[in-house]
Design a protein that fits this description.
The chain is an alpha/beta fold and 355 residues long. It has helices spanning 11-22, 48-61, 71-87, 94-110, 154-159, 169-178, 200-208, and strands at residues 3-6, 28-33, 36-38, 41-43, 65-69, 117-119, 125-129, 132-136, 160-161, 213-217, 223-227, 248-254, 259-264, 272-283, 295-301, 309-316, 319-329, 336-340, 347-353.
Length: 355
Amino acid sequence: MEIAALVSGGVDSSVVVHLLKEAGCNPVIFYIRIGMEDRDGYVDCPSEEDIEITAFIAKKYGCRMEVVSLHEEYWEKVVSYTIDSVRRGLTPNPDVMCNRYIKFGCFEEKWGKDFDKTATGHYATTTAIDGKVWLSTAKDPVKDQTDFLGQITNLQVSKLMFPVGRLMKSEVRAIAEEQCLPSAKRRDSQGICFLGKINYNGFIERYLGRRPGKIIELETGKTVGTHNGYWFHTIGQRKGLGLSGGPWFVIRKDIKENIIYVSNGYDPETQYGRTINLQGFHFTTEDPWGPFEGEREITFKVRHTPEFTCGHIRRTGDMYMIRSDRKIQGIAPGQFAVVYDREHRLCYGSGMISF
């Protein structure tokens, strides 16, 4: 079986190569450059250290290695999406888009099509049921990344391999140290890849500029401060408002008037909600329910956490609505709500949270 392994230089994807070799496979290693390129020049996300470590892994295990570039596609599919979402007052999730359209989309079209399987270092698993392959959660609940994979397609799911998904992160680290891999003690990557070391607000300002506006207390209508543009803030945000007498939480944004509404206190009720409206719901393998009346029991996530929330889902036309069994903090339009079965084992898919 011909396997392509996507290796970034991090500990997880490095251990993927070791596990594949142990299983008798000889993967071809691909390092994907996904920096960004625009009229002002090229900003490279990956560092040379990443490529050096990946090259070391390839040499250690006797694998062929290719460095391929998808930075133009990344700008078109992910960076532009991020800028446009922020401009519209939404909270984007570039990692979700990157997985669907770049790592498992453009890569597949250009190089992956020549291989039987594509292996990655994501913490996820797949489960075969009645001849169909489902995206399913990882052994390590803290590291599980199925919420970042909730927009991939059934063809992508059926072709992907997640060798570290059945291991705890501590086990992955232990293997890396035992094998003397240079990535053994590397910290996990944080933040949005295409920014590299660029400050996020600085990046947003570069494309959207500044537009001073009011910060208003929701309950009283009193102006309590100013901001430099609604696009610098997201629903549920606590830090970075520059207000005294806090804590303050962003509760709502008026895009037309460029107003940020906030509430004061350590646990204001206004930051919570129980109803989540979804648009463009996407099933990873297939619709598990088919046409149905009323509601279906589910578990779900609206952010990257180990915890799942129980709730019910209802369909109305092309829209889905989740009714949560408990109140949810900071429901931010633009983010994805990812839906699982009641045992939170199978990831059914995800939809974008709408206003």
